[in-house]
Automatic annotation (TrEMBL):
Annotated positions binding ATP: S223, G224, G225, V226, D227, S228, S229
Entry keyword set: ATP-binding, Glutamine amidotransferase, GMP biosynthesis, Ligase, Nucleotide-binding, Purine biosynthesis
Function: Catalyzes the synthesis of GMP from XMP.
Keyword flag Ligase: yes
Signal peptide feature range: none
Pathway in which the depicted protein is active: Purine metabolism; GMP biosynthesis; GMP from XMP (L-Gln route): step 1/1
Organism: Parvimonas micra
Cross-referenced InterPro entries: Arginosuc_syn_N, Class_I_gatase-like, GATASE, GMP_synth_C, GMP_synth_GATase, GMP_synthase, GMPS_ATP_PPase_dom, Rossmann-like_a/b/a_fold
Residue positions of the active site: C82 (nucleophile), H169, E171
Record-given protein name: GMP synthase [glutamine-hydrolyzing]
Amino acid sequence: MKNELILVVDFGGQYNQLIARRVRDLNVYCEVVPYNKAVNEIKRKKPIGIIFTGGPNSVYDEKAPKIEKEIFEFNIPILGLCYGMQLISQTFGGVVEKADKKEFGKTLCIKDKNSKLISNMKSETTVWMSHQDQVVKLPEGFDCIQHTDTCPYAGIENEEKKIYAVQYHPEVNHSEEGKELIKSFLYDICNASGDWTMQNFMNEQIQKIKQTVGDKKVLLALSGGVDSSVCASLLSKSIGSQLTCVFVDTGLMRKNEGDEVEEAFKNDELNFVRVNAKDRFLEKLKGVTDPEQKRKIIGEEFIRVFEDEAKKIGQVDYLAQGTIYPDVIESGLGDAKVIKSHHNVGGLPDVVDFKDLIEPLRDLFKDEVRRLGLELKMPEYLVFRQPFPGPGLGIRVMGEVTEEKLEILRNADAIFREEIAKAGEDKNISQYFAVITNNKTVGVMGDFRTYDYTLALRGVTTTDFMTADWARIPYEVLDRVSVRIVNEVENINRIVYDITSKPPATIEWE
Ligand code: XMP
């Protein structure tokens, strides 16, 4: 079965992925295509609706992205947002001009006509604006459906041609009833049936994988992260023992993490291979203190270990990877097959003899991957795992990575995570962990002088991990963590909390 499709035509707007996610949250499948490939993709994929995104350009710029007129002749409903609206207006003979000043932020928007697009929105609603150019003269055949104080045409329509456009951003949460607008476009204008559900996706993928793989063998490198775990679970459900998962335990994972991953997968039908490679990694890391060098060594060793295991298995037909949709979009919108690099160094496929790649998650956003995990009945601790860097604790042990420092860090980090969860703070914090510094300071325990390590705690809130703020963890919680760690973990006598945001700091310390 093929899902109904909405195509988001990307003009370089910062919210392109967000629009697609909003559409999918309303149970309609959605893909993003660059504007210069849009017409071909429409012919090929036959969407039920098209959305033009915003973009940083002015329609009058020489190099501003344009769209072929043909797109308006397919009789497929179109919704233009921001730049998308200006482009539509310009194409149909309207006038777009630069306003005196940029309109940015929440604005009250007033309804002028009860268009299908906004029929479920109030007559006065708050919307999110971010523009300088705006339409000052409507193209022929278009009606104004909304305006704001400074924007005479905040929403327009040409009902006959099924073209709708708004100057604001309904995809942004600050637009109070943005979801209603998108819903009306999907269900009242494009007549979507809402056939995109995780259960359907799961069942379709299981069938598809079975068909593709036949009786052949598949190999997957399982890191224990969300994407590769969900990928393993989905493949296992489709092809059972034809799947071999190689889980490289680097010895750089958090407390009990290796056992948890093993626990979750070893009972499945798949062939689960755990390689305990701690000694190999520690040997390679001996004496190394430079963060970049540590990352490189860990990444390379991971590949070597995987390669050694793959050699034992012999030739495989398919290599599976947990590539997800943002990776696909970011690397040129589905042009080429993306090979997700492990630990941010070279890809695995170079070293493994395989015929083709399988990437069953390449259509999914991260939150959808998690939903799929739940649909597959995976344990929640795996599905809602916070991000963990490929090089693992190797970059949370400052200076040389030793068994002793790793053990201290694992114990301290486990207490921190336990207390955060107990306090219910895990819902407010995007990522939190401990770092063992390379510093020793003087302390006093009972009647004795101590000279032990300083431990740093880090907690951040973020949506995209590109920027982040330090988490305001309540003092009482920090206090409990501190008391417990110094009492329960040997060799730590001082604890500090990292209060820098990103930028200027990064989330990880190395
Ligand atoms: P930074 O430290 O760059 O981290 O602010 C941003 C996010 O990325 C994670 N991170 C990594 N993830 N391989 C990964 O897969 C890596 O080498 C790596 N380094 C950092 C980090 O945990 C945070 O979520």
